[in-house]
């Protein structure tokens, strides 16, 4: 084996290890992004439900107050 062949074989081993690390890192980043997206969607749903409850409860309060004023 020539020195260049040995160098290229070593370089190939190192690069295959780097590609494996990058693949694992890409999987980890995609999982984090998916979890963040789901958390964002769930949080928006909770805010929407809270806002809806507030609006409905304030409408009931306003309608009952209006009903009392009419009497």
Structural commentary:
The protein is an all-alpha fold. It is 96% helix and 0% strand. It is built from 1 helix and no strands. The chain has one helix spanning 3-70. It starts with a helix and ends with a helix. The relative contact order is 0.05. The mean pLDDT is 81.
Write the layout of secondary structure elements.
Elements: H1 3-70
Overall number of strands: 0
Report the order of strands and helices. H
Strand content: under 5%
Determine the structural class based on helices, strands and strand pairing.
mainly alpha
* Total helical elements: 1
Q: Mean of residue pLDDT?
A: 81
Q: Sum up the overall morphology in one term.
A: rod-shaped
Oligomer: single chain
Point out poorly predicted stretches.
none
Distance between the termini: 103 Å
Rg estimate, integer Å: 31 Å
Q: How can the largest sheet be summarized?
A: none
Helix content: over 70%
Descriptors:
71 residues; mainly alpha; 1 helix
Task: Write a compact overview of the structure shown.
This protein is mainly α and 71 residues long.
């Amino acid at each position: 084996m020539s020195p260049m062949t040995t160098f290229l074989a070593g370089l190939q081993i190192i690069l295959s290890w780097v590609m494996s690390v990058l693949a694992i890192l890409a999987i980890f980043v995609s999982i984090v992004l998916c979890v963040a997206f789901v958390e964002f969607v769930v949080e928006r749903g909770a805010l929407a439900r809270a806002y809806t409850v507030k609006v409905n409860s304030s409408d009931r309060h306003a309608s009952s107050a209006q009903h009392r004023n009419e009497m």
